[in-house]
Every structure is written in structure tokens, then in C-alpha cells.
Design brief:
Layout (H helix, E strand, L loop, with lengths): L2 H25 L20 E8 L2 E8 L2 E6 L2 E4 L2 H12 L6 E3 L2 H6 L8 E7 L3 E11 L5 E6 L5 E5 L3 H4 L20 E8 L2 E8 L2 E3 L9 H13 L4 E3 L8 E7 L4 E6 L7 E6 L5 E5 H7 L10
């Protein structure tokens, strides 16, 4: 082989080795343990359309539909807390320094970081392709950090335990169970309340509130507090059907002329009420305590 051919061959070999090194670094940036990196590249967030979380409380599946996240399960698909999903993505896409604690098969076994033994967060994009497959182990000796491993790599890192908040909660923690959304107390002009033995209207009058037909002024603070609880009320879970009969009804009229109503059934054997809200395709289960807080006797709004 001539000298020129040897130089050409060696140059090609060096180029191939350099390419392999670059690809290894790009595909597995964690190899550079001294630099901060994000577990999930922020540029990939727009591709994310599915999340699977497996932890001590079971498995949670979230899907993005029409740019809105829903919780998917055997009973159907229900609204998810969009802020909670955003918080998870913020954690995964934030650049942090993750110290390497182990990188051997023995270390994976010893620290409980096998696929069968660890909790897991999988972020999917496109046709179900994994954008991130993150294994989350137990806490370290001091209980302040957890161990992490991004499959299929062997490196095990430690990180501040901001992950348990997402993996140690059941599916209910991901449901958006608010009965009313996108409304404020200031936008409410009138509320009609009816349930057995009671039927009255709270109507805004100037800077205060009245019950039409009654002369006594209402306690504005109690009315405002009630309206705030009404708008912030949450169900216990989603129901599978509408209430068979209606025992209580609350209708809210807003300044723009729109209305929203809550209809609740009688107390069940499980000490809760089935309910539904206008303009929502979902059914709800509300606790007896929530029912009692929302369906107040009119005497509650008068000053003592």
C-alpha cells in the first residue's frame, strides 16, 4: 500500500471515530457529567403528545388532544390539570447538574434502578416515540435526593427530590375537578339557589347584595366568601352518569349575560352527591361537605 493510500485510510478512520464520538456525546449528553443538562430537551416539548407515569400509586396516562391534556383511563378521558403538566415539563426540561453516582450493572441492581424496580416517567411524541424514558429510584441515605436513570443508558444520577410529587400521587391528583372555571366573583351579577325547603336569589345591588323581596341588607362579606367558595369548589372525582334526580340547583348569571348551573342529586349510600355542570360533558361526584357549603340556607347571608 502506498503512502498516499495509507494517509487517506487513516484520515477516513479518524473521521469515522470522531463522528462516533460526536454522536455518542449528542445522543447521551449525560456522559459529560461535569456540565448541566436537561433530562428532556426543551425543543422537544412541542412534539410531546403523551405521558405515562408509573409509581407506587399505580399508572397514569395523559394524552394531548387539541392542545389540551386529558387523563386517559378505562372509564374514558377526563380534563387534566394543565398547570400540573406544565410543572412536570418545567422540571424535566430545566438544566441542572446531575452528579453521576454509578454506571455499572451492579450499581443499577444495588440502587434499585432496574426497569422492574424503579418508578418511571415516559414522555412520548409523534407516533408514540419516546422522547424521554426516565427511571426514578428511591431516596439517598439522607432522604434529600433521589436516583435517576434515563433508559437505555446505564449512568445513575442523583437529584433534588422534586420528582416524588409527580410519581407518588394517584390519578385523582391529575384530574381537573373544578366545577367552574374561567370566572371571577366580580363578574357575577346574580345567583339562584334552590334545594329542599329553600329557594332564593342573591342579586348584586350597587356595591352590595340583596335577596329580592326582603328588606334586610345582606352581609356582603358572607356573600363574597360564598361566591368565592362556589367558584373554587372541586369535586372528589368524576362520575360515570348523571344524577337520577335533582335535589339542588345553583344558577350563576354573569355580567356578559351568560349563565352556568350546577345540579346535584340526593345523598348516596357513599355519603356523596352525583352532580353535573352546564356546558360540561362530564359528570362529577361531590362530597356531602361540599354540598352543604354550596347549598346554604338564606339566613346564612344576614348579619347576626
Amino acid at each position: 500500500m502506498t503512502y498516499k493510500k495509507k494517509v487517506t485510510l487513516l484520515s477516513a478512520l479518524v473521521a469515522v471515530l470522531a463522528l462516533i464520538y460526536i454522536l455518542t456525546f449528542v445522543l447521551d449528553p449525560e456522559n459529560n457529567s461535569g456540565a448541566a443538562f436537561a433530562l428532556l430537551d426543551p425543543s422537544l416539548l412541542v412534539m410531546a403528545d403523551g405521558i405515562e407515569i408509573s409509581g407506587p400509586e399505580g399508572r397514569v396516562v395523559l394524552k394531548r388532544k387539541n392542545n389540551t391534556w386529558v387523563v386517559s383511563g378505562d372509564s374514558g378521558e377526563f380534563p387534566a390539570k394543565q398547570e400540573r403538566v406544565a410543572d412536570l415539563f418545567a422540571l424535566l426540561s430545566r438544566k441542572e447538574s446531575y452528579p453521576v453516582r454509578a454506571s455499572s450493572s451492579e450499581g443499577i441492581e444495588r440502587l434499585g434502578m432496574t426497569e422492574a424496580g424503579a418508578s418511571r416517567i415516559i414522555v412520548q411524541g409523534g407516533a408514540g416515540l419516546p422522547l424521554l424514558d426516565l427511571l426514578i429510584g428511591g431516596a439517598d441515605a439522607l432522604g434529600r435526593e433521589v436516583y435517576l436513570r434515563t433508559a437505555p443508558w446505564n449512568q445513575i444520577y442523583s437529584a433534588d427530590d422534586n420528582f416524588s410529587f409527580f410519581i407518588n400521587s394517584g390519578v385523582n391528583s391529575w384530574y381537573d375537578l373544578r366545577l367552574f372555571t374561567e370566572a371571577s366573583v366580580d363578574s357575577i351579577q346574580q345567583v339562584e339557589v334552590s334545594f329542599p325547603g329553600q329557594a332564593y336569589i342573591l342579586r348584586r345591588s350597587g356595591r352590595g347584595w340583596i335577596i329580592p323581596g326582603k328588606e334586610t341588607a345582606l352581609d356582603a362579606n358572607r356573600v363574597e366568601s360564598f361566591l368565592k367558595r362556589l367558584l373554587e369548589a372541586e369535586a372528589e372525582s368524576f362520575g360515570v352518569s348523571a344524577p337520577e334526580t335533582i335535589e339542588g340547583r345553583i344558577t350563576i348569571q354573569f355580567g356578559n349575560g351568560s349563565t352556568r348551573s350546577l345540579q346535584a342529586g340526593p345523598l348516596t349510600d357513599q355519603d356523596n352527591h352525583y352532580a353535573m355542570v352546564s356546558e360540561s360533558p362530564d359528570f362529577y361526584v361531590i362530597s356531602e361537605r361540599t354540598f352543604n357549603n354550596l347549598f346554604r340556607a338564606s339566613s346564612y347571608f344576614f348579619s347576626n
